[in-house]
C-alpha cells in the first residue's frame, strides 16, 4: 500500500515538473526574441537615414532633369518693342511708336529625358501670335506679330560654384512674321500682306539654380543664344522691297530669364517645380530692320513668365 502511494506521489511530482518545464520554455523563447529585436533596432538606429522632410523641400537639379522623363509648360506674358519704328515718314518726323504696346500671351512647352548621370535630350516649342493696333497716324490698321521657335538639344547637368547648372546645345527652327491688314492713308507705309523670316541654326543655353538657404526656393536664371540661317519672304507688306523671297538671311536671337523657382520632391518620387521669372527676347535681322521709311525694326519682347515642370 505504501509502495502504491509513493508511486502515485512520484507520478504526480513528475507531471508537475514536466508542466513547469513546458511553461518556462515559451517564456524563455519570448525573452530571446525580445533580445534579438532590440539588437536589430540598435543596428538600424546606427545606420544613416535620409531625412524625408529635407528631401521634400530641397530637390537637386538632377532630380529635375535626370533618370527619367520630365515635361512642363510656360505662359509667356510679353510686350513687344520695335526699335526705330517709326522715325521718319517721307522726311517728316513721326513721334510715338508704331504699335500700341500691350502685354499678350504665348505658350512654351518642353519634354525631355535624361539618364542617372544627367545626360539627356529634350524638345521645346514656343509660339506667340498676336495683333496690335498701330498708333496714329497709322491706325486703324492692325500689325500682326507671329513668332515660333522649336528646339531639339542635348543636355547635361553640372554642379558649379554652389549652382546646379544645365548646359544645352542643339538645333533651332525659328520664324518671325509680320502682317498688315489695312492700307493707311494715300501713301501707306505698309502694304496689305505679310513679311516673314524662317530659318534653322544652332542654339546653346545655360540654365542654373541656387538654393536660398534650406528653403524650398531657389534663384533661377537662364540665357540662350541662337543663330538662324534662312530666307525673308516679302508678300506685299514692305513697299520698299520687292515682293519676293530674299535668300541667304541671318537672324540672331538672344533670350534670358531671371526669377525664382519653388520645388518639391513628393514621397512617390514625383518632382514638382513652379517658376516665376522676368523674360527678355531680342530678334535681329538687318533686312527686316532696314526700310527707307524708317519703319523696319528689330524686335524685342519683355514681360513675366510663369511655368510648371513635372519630372518622374
Shape: elongated
Structural class: alpha+beta
Average pLDDT, to the nearest integer? Answer: 80
Give the spatial strand order of the biggest sheet. 1-4-5-6-7-8-9-10-11-12
Helix % is 10-25%
Q: Count of DSSP E strands?
A: 12
Low-confidence stretches: 49-58
Radius of gyration: 36 Å
Topology as a string of helices (H) and strands (E): HHHEEEEEEEEEEEE
**Percent in strands:** over 45%
The first-to-last residue Cα distance is 88 Å
**With helices defined by DSSP (H or I, 4 residues minimum), what is the helix count?**
3
Largest sheet: 10 strands, antiparallel, barrel
Summarize this, please?
The protein is 18% helix and 54% strand. The chain is α+β, with helices and mostly antiparallel strands.
Descriptive overview:
By secondary structure, the protein is α+β, with helices and mostly antiparallel strands. The protein has three helices and twelve strands, in the order αααββββββββββββ. It is 18% helix and 54% strand. The strands form two sheets. Strands 1-4-5-6-7-8-9-10-11-12 form a ten-stranded antiparallel beta barrel. The longest helix is centred in the N-terminal third of the chain and has 45 residues, at 2-46. It is elongated and about 105 Å long. Residues 49-58 have low confidence and may be disordered.
Amino acid at each position: 500500500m505504501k509502495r502504491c502511494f509513493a508511486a502515485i506521489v512520484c507520478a504526480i511530482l513528475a507531471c508537475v515538473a514536466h508542466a513547469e518545464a513546458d511553461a518556462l520554455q515559451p517564456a524563455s523563447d519570448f525573452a530571446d526574441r525580445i533580445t534579438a529585436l532590440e539588437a536589430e533596432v540598435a543596428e538600424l538606429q546606427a545606420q544613416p537615414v535620409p531625412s524625408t522632410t529635407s528631401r521634400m523641400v530641397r530637390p537637386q537639379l538632377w532630380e529635375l532633369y535626370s533618370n527619367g522623363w520630365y515635361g512642363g509648360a510656360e505662359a509667356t506674358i510679353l510686350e513687344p518693342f520695335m526699335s526705330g519704328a517709326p522715325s521718319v515718314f517721307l522726311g517728316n518726323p513721326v513721334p510715338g511708336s508704331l504699335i500700341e504696346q500691350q502685354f499678350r500671351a504665348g505658350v512654351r512647352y518642353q519634354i525631355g529625358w535624361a539618364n542617372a548621370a544627367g545626360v539627356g535630350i529634350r524638345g521645346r516649342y514656343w509660339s506667340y501670335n498676336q495683333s496690335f493696333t498701330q498708333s496714329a497716324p497709322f491706325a486703324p490698321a492692325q500689325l500682326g506679330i507671329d513668332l515660333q521657335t522649336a528646339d531639339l538639344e542635348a543636355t547635361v547637368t553640372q554642379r558649379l560654384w554652389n549652382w546646379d547648372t544645365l548646359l544645352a546645345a542643339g538645333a533651332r527652327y525659328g520664324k518671325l512674321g509680320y502682317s498688315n491688314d489695312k492700307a493707311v492713308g494715300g501713301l501707306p507705309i505698309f502694304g496689305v500682306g505679310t513679311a516673314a523670316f524662317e530659318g534653322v541654326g544652332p542654339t546653346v543655353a545655360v540654365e542654373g539654380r541656387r538654393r536660398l538657404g534650406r528653403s524650398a526656393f531657389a534663384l533661377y536664371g537662364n540665357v540662350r543664344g541662337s543663330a538662324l540661317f534662312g530666307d525673308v519672304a516679302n508678300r506685299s507688306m514692305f513697299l520698299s522691297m520687292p515682293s519676293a523671297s530674299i535668300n541667304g538671311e541671318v537672324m540672331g536671337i538672344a533670350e534670358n530669364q531671371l526669377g525664382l523657382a519653388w520645388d518639391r520632391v513628393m514621397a512617390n518620387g514625383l518632382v514638382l517645380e513652379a517658376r516665376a521669372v522676368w523674360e527678355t527676347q531680342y530678334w535681329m535681322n538687318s533686312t527686316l530692320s532696314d526700310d527707307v521709311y524708317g519703319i523696319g525694326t528689330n524686335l524685342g519682347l519683355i514681360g513675366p513668365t510663369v511655368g510648371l515642370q513635372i519630372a518622374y
